[in-house]
């Protein structure tokens, strides 16, 4: 695939009025934009903590294009679109005509011709969502549901919503540790960008050297690297544990999963070093007994399943806001008012 593009993602994801048009990466978005996504997501959760249903996207068509496996992300996008009354089509890419030699471009143009308003795209190539938004289907709202090891912006926003709702603290006042395979994780990259934009000053990253990206020292404001897990966890408000992304690792980076658990697995003893009300998060899929002990995954401090529910609210917000941007471009804004 030719991934060279004329503009950066941050240049194409907002329209001329500064509203979200595509959602490709956290980088380049302002604190105001991220806060608007969080506030809109919050407005889709009622006082009884339940997700609402409305008809904001009635008559609109959302297509899920997952070129890579997914459980939570694909299903929560579908649930979100249905809660907004959109038509949802899950395209079975593995059985589509791309397997008969049709180019990705042609497949996408055909899907666009079926009156798609939004493409939710997951792809193993970093830059795929940007490429589609910039050069293939600029008139369809493109939402990145994870591209290679580059970005996973809706996961980052659901993580931010979870932190905001569960800790009830300002991002400026939070200490957070992100532990595990940082190198291959699009979640870590997008989480760090979102935390920095929202003003978090204490982002601690913990990983063996083999699982750290090159040039990590350039990650910027508020980010500190720790080799020893016990030091990193000290007095934390939030811990995010990450799975080892074996599908993105060419040669085995670790001697064994048991070794990883010994050095970097989150167990009760280590969690006790954090603040007593520290929350534990994981984007899933989780490997119990590798990056996290089962007793913690299922324990009182775990908010892992709340993340999943918050994922629906965030995806509703991103779908509604990006459609608002698209409709505004087409002069159809009165159709929707968030
Ligand atoms: C993550 C992903 O796909 O990047 N999972 C998710 O979206 N819930 C993290 C992972 O696969 O480990």
TrEMBL record:
GO process annotations (BP): 'de novo' pyrimidine nucleobase biosynthetic process; 'de novo' UMP biosynthetic process; amino acid metabolic process
Where would I find the Aspartate/ornithine carbamoyltransferase carbamoyl-P binding domain in this sequence? 21-164
Enzyme class, spelled out: transferase
KW Transferase (keyword) present: yes
Superkingdom of origin: Bacteria
What EC number(s) does its UniProt record assign? 2.1.3.2
Residue stretches making up the Aspartate/ornithine carbamoyltransferase Asp/Orn-binding domain: 173-321
Record PROSITE patterns: CARBAMOYLTRANSFERASE
- Tell me the protein's name: Aspartate carbamoyltransferase
Encoding gene per record: pyrB
